[in-house]
User: Which sequence fits this backbone?
């Protein structure tokens, strides 16, 4: 039994993304509608996901485009306000992801009681956002410093819109990441949000670290969920739950219900 069963309540877990609208400081933030609008849109998506039957939810500033690799304090402050206002309505385990800042993701988790965080904790990359460096030792020490040692760390080892500066094989990356850092899970992604996770890469990662939780991180749909979950221990799902399967849209409860019906049938 993995920690997914203990913390979230199921194996072959489906973690749904609740994408926040642009926040104060983001180029696309709607100053006229303000934070009340952002909170209400998050509430709408949260309820559609919960009523649709997902196992857990992860709150993320997905529309803070273009992303920063060192996030400004107003972003995490806004995210804390949203989660705080929704706290009494959250009925399932939740995690957080402050794109792309591991320390602030942990700060937000500590402040809100999130059970897990997903982030780029290791590696150095050439990305759409410039040279992207990390310091996992510093980040994990920060985790313990703020009392967040029980928060599960989901390591995204194939970051979207980025490539390792060193030419490293994915099996080598997975094995050394697990050996050096003891992640709670490895997340395997496609090129962008909504892009299908490569089955062969997913299989290589799971085979090389069979005792570690491996999640399909992007592009899992109702049509491919069985083949993805036949390898992965679970999936992080965002775009597939939205109206017309489009990244920029809100969550469609009927799509969530249909997806979860198939997922639950598969794991039973």
Assistant:
């Amino acid at each position: 039994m993995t920690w997914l069963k203990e913390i979230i309540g199921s194996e072959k877990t489906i973690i749904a993304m609740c994408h926040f609208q642009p926040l104060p400081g983001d180029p696309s933030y709607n100053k006229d509608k303000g934070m009340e609008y952002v909170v209400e849109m998050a509430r709408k998506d949260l309820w559609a996901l919960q009523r649709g039957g997902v196992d857990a939810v992860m709150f993320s500033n997905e529309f803070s485009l273009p992303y920063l690799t060192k996030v400004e304090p107003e972003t995490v402050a806004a995210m804390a306000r949203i989660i705080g206002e929704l706290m009494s309505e959250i009925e399932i385990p939740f995690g957080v992801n402050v794109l792309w800042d591991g320390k602030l993701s942990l700060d937000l988790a500590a402040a809100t009681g999130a059970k897990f965080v997903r982030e780029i904790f290791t590696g150095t990359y050439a990305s759409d956002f410039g040279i992207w460096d990390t310091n996992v030792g510093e980040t994990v020490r920060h985790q313990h410093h703020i009392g967040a040692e029980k928060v599960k760390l989901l390591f995204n080892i194939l970051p979207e819109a980025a490539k390792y500066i060193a030419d490293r094989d994915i099996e080598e990356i997975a094995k050394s990441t697990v050996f050096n850092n003891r992640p709670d899970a490895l997340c395997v992604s496609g090129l962008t949000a909504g892009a299908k996770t490569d089955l062969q890469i997913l299989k290589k990662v799971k085979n090389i670290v069979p005792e570690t939780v491996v999640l399909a991180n992007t592009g899992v749909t109702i049509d491919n969920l069985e083949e993805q979950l036949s390898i992965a221990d679970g999936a992080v799902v965002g775009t597939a739950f939205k109206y017309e399967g489009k990244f920029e849209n809100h969550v469609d409860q009927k799509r969530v219900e249909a997806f979860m019906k198939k997922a639950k049938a598969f794991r039973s």
